[in-house]
Amino acid sequence: MPAELTERLAALFRWIDPGPGTSHLVSDISGWWRDPTVLAELGPALVAPYRAARPTVVLAPAVTGLLLGPLAATALGVGFVAAHKPGDGRLPAGPLTWAQSPPDYRGRQVDLAVRDRHLGPDDRVLVVDDWVRTGAQVRALYDICATRGAEVLGTAVVAVDCPPEVAADLRITGLIDAADLHA
Ligand SMILES: O=P(O)(O)OC[C@H]1O[C@H](OP(=O)(O)OP(=O)(O)O)[C@H](O)[C@@H]1O
Ligand SMILES: Nc1ncnc2[nH]cnc12
Fold first, then answer.
1. What is the CA angle 32-33-38, rounded to 5?
2. CATH 3.40.50.2020 is held by the domain 43-177
3. According to the 3-state scheme, what is the secondary structure of 42-68?
4. pLDDT of the chain along its 183 residues, tens only?
5. Which of 96, 104, 175, 177 could link 113 by a cystine bridge, Cβ 3.0 to 4.6 Å?
6. Is 108 near ligand 2, meaning CB less than 6 Å away?
7. In angstroms, rounded to a whole number, what is the distance separating the alpha carbons of residues 165 and 171?
8. Do residues 90 and 63 lie in contact, with contact meaning Cβ atoms separated by under 8 Å?
């Protein structure tokens, strides 16, 4: 992990108290996008461990992945594919491949969908996301890749918040350990 970027990620992160009636703090990563240095360096840092494996495409889930995925794809010079969450009421048009995640960090079983025409057997896929806790959503994306016959190279996230055995199983690399996000 690049030390200076990791320090900036920690400095720009906030835990927020959403107010009365809530029992836990929520993460606020918006400072990462507001900082021009972090915004410029995130894509190249995320993809660095995977360059040698020559990804053909970056795949990332809504919503935050729609921001990070294109940063990573641009750094690699490849295209980007969105994994939609039609639970938000917007079903993408055309043929789709679906997977449902195991219960994620909020106990949700999330339905994810990818347009068939954007992912296929010739693809070597790098999955990108902001945060991983249980790995549930990453697992669903791997299921979609398997259904499409695409090869998964691994997953690059900003904050790693999962057990080491999950990171090893899913081939997850990260830029900062969530335990180091204090502010
Ligand atoms: O490891 P897991 O337990 O699967 O949790 C991690 C996922 O959950 C969060 O997304 P969320 O669905 O909250 O969407 P967001 O990007 O809209 O915040 C996060 O961005 C990851 O995608
Ligand atoms: N964005 C996020 N995704 C998963 N787990 C989290 N815990 C705190 N913020 C999170």
1. 60
2. yes
3. HHHHHHHHHHHHCCCEEEEECCCHHHH
4. 679 999 999 999 999 999 998 888 999 999 999 999 999 999 999 999 999 999 999 999 999 999 999 999 999 999 999 999 988 888 999 999 999 999 999 999 999 999 999 999 999 999 999 999 999 999 999 999 999 999 999 999 999 999 999 999 999 999 999 999 997
5. 96
6. no
7. 10
8. no
User: ipTM for the complex?
Assistant: 0.97
To which residue do tokens 């998964």 refer?
Answer: 152
What are the angstrom distances between the C-alpha of 85 and each of 81, 157, 178? 13, 19, 25
Distance 162 CA to ligand 1 centre (A): 12
User: Whose C-alpha lies nearest to ligand 2, atom 3?
Assistant: 131
Residue type, 65: G
Q: Alpha-carbon distance 102 to 79, whole Å?
A: 28
How many CA within 13 A on the CB side of residue 151?
8
Q: How far is the C-alpha of 124 from the C-alpha of 53, rounded, in Å?
A: 8
CB 15 within 8 A of CB 183: yes
178 lines ligand 2 (CB under 6 A): no
Say if residues 25 and 13 touch (Cβ distance below 8 Å).
no
